[in-house]
Amino acid sequence: MEIRNVGQSALRVSAIELGNNFGRPLLSGSRAVIHKALDLGITFFACGDVYGRRGGAETILGEVLGEHRKDIVLVTKFGRPMVTEGKLKGASRRYIMTPIEASLKQLKDRLDRSHYHLVDPLTPIEETLRALDEFVHQDKVR
């Protein structure tokens, strides 16, 4: 498997990423796919807080990766509505603390990267970046 740097960083990942939209009903199939990806040398995994019925994909990864967590780079995304009324969403500092803390709990570890899913026209990008920087300084996001 070809390994590449992420941008200008020292973070190195496989050229192929396993995007994860697994959920609880598919646990056995998810386990097989994740382990096959690891066997093939895939070290780049991505999921999101809304995938797998709002948190299920992260929970599956947290359960299945186990000791292999240290061998991969894990990216998760936030910002899409977490409830049908569309209230739990966005990129404000006040909001993003909730999904990132939930992702940390579901994945049972720190995050290598956290991406914002959408543009939030109501929140200045500086506010979002300052909030994400807090997680980096707390060693919760690499």
DSSP, total strands: 6
Percentage of helical residues? 25-40%
Report the total helices: 4
**Outline:** globular
What is the total domain count?
A: 1
- Runs with pLDDT <50, length 5+? none
Main beta sheet: 4 strands, parallel
The first-to-last residue Cα distance is: 23 Å
CATH topology group: TIM Barrel
Q: Strand fraction band?
A: 15-25%
Radius of gyration: 15 Å
Write structural notes for this entry:
This protein is α/β, with parallel strands linked by helices and 142 residues long. It is 39% helix and 17% strand. The chain contains four helices and six strands, in the order βββαβαβαβα. Helix 1 crosses helix 2 (51-65) and helix 2 packs across helix 3. It is globular, with a radius of gyration of 15 Å. It starts with a strand and ends in a 5-residue tail after the last helix. The mean pLDDT is 79.
Tell me briefly what this model is.
With 142 residues, this protein is an alpha/beta fold. It has one domain (3-137): NADP-dependent oxidoreductase domain (TIM Barrel), CATH 3.20.20.100.
